[in-house]
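Subject: for your reference before the review

Hello V.,

The reviewers asked for a structural picture of the protein, and I figured it would be easier to keep everything in one thread rather than splitting it across files. Below is the amino acid sequence we used in the manuscript, unchanged from the supplementary table.
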Amino acid sequence: MSKNLRDFNKFFYPKSVAVVGASVDPKKTGHVMLNNLLSYGYKGKIYPINPGAEEILGVKSYKSILEIPEEVDLVIFTIPAKGIVDTMEECGNKGVKAAVVHSAGFAESGEEGKRLQDRMVEIANKFKVNIIGPNCMGIMCVETRLPWARRTTFPEMPGGVAVISQSGGGGGSFVNLADERGIRFSKIVTIGNECDVSVLDLLDYFGDDPATNIIFIYLECFRDGHRFLEIAKRVSVKKPIIIYKIGRTDAGARAAASHTGSLAGSIQVYDGAFKQTGIIRAEGIAEALDIITIFEKVWFGQGKPAGDRVGIVTGPGGPGVATADACVESGLSVPMISEATKKKLSEAIPQATRSNPMDMGDFGFVAALKEKDPYGIMTGFMEEDENIDMAAVMGPGEANPGGFMESILNINKSHKKPFIVIWPSAGKEVEECKVTLMRAGVPLFLTPEGAAKALGAMMRYKKLIKKLEV
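And here is what came back from the structure prediction:
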């Protein structure tokens, strides 16, 4: 079936949603889905479908889709696989154009499940119904307050990151972690067996979605290599695509095949395709979170750095050295500061090291951050230095976290060049301050290595899209 990508808006901007399998039992997915629609603020019309109930959670219930007196944009299935085939026919006759099938028991379960899946798709194709799933956790649109089922994390504020995940559990856990980092989402899709709507269809859609700036894919495989190359190259020039590829080893590939019926393929082949198309592959979840943070909060937040020259500002000396190493190892430059900067620094903070990393010298300054603000002074000097394109500010461990947080919030309000914060420490007050900074939009990283790799990925992307645009 040729996909009309405009119809995909029915998934994310539906004026009405029917839940087939809505239940009075709080343990069942149909109950959780309906409760989430009501609790998370979805403003459209909601139609529970359950032949044995008059109402569920205070909402009138219907025996079938055909009984609903008005149009239905999106149908969410939570009933067993065998019951979906007949109900899909009803959806077609009702004029439904979008369906999300949470239910398992399809191709991933064996031959009988595959026959059911093929029949479901055949009916959907006849009526031009787009299907996401089956065997998935569902979808979310933060803007329209459309929630997924079986998950409790629902971001409060919309943002520019779209997620496509071939793993329901993996994708859901990733969103939980990203939400803690202050990353904000536009739309989230867990795609399951990919019986109809594919990862590539969604990549194509998100490439033109005005609400999406960054695309993250939790990937097992692409099923159409030629189409992938065409879509990915076109989209990556407009928006960064970050992929976390699972099934990289023989053991992982076997697990992927049994999980969703996917064939994972050689990681060397994928890496070659990624390089051709400008895609960034994250080697792990932590790295993916760091890379998304750098694009969301620097590239699309503070602005693109003019170059790769990093100025490091630190209180503790050792972590500053570690950051310099990590930056150079990630392909960045850590140049010497200018003579003019050295002169200004000597006058403002005589104990400071007149170099890059710029070390305040007397760690006693940390106790007086609010009064003397060495971090603000040194970061300002780095921003004014013609040899520096962006600043990396190293946190003071667990010493005076509140004072450091205030300094960073002030820098965040007035910075002239992009800057990031690296704070490799812990403790109750430190963690509370980190959350405040991340919620304020500060690009914060937990390790020098993670920060440097993310900066390096951003600069490689900047160079690569110039080549792709030619």
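For the response letter, the relevant points are probably these. The domain at 136-282 is CATH 3.40.50.261 (Rossmann fold). Residues 448-469 form the longest helix (22 residues).

Happy to draft the paragraph if you're swamped.

O.
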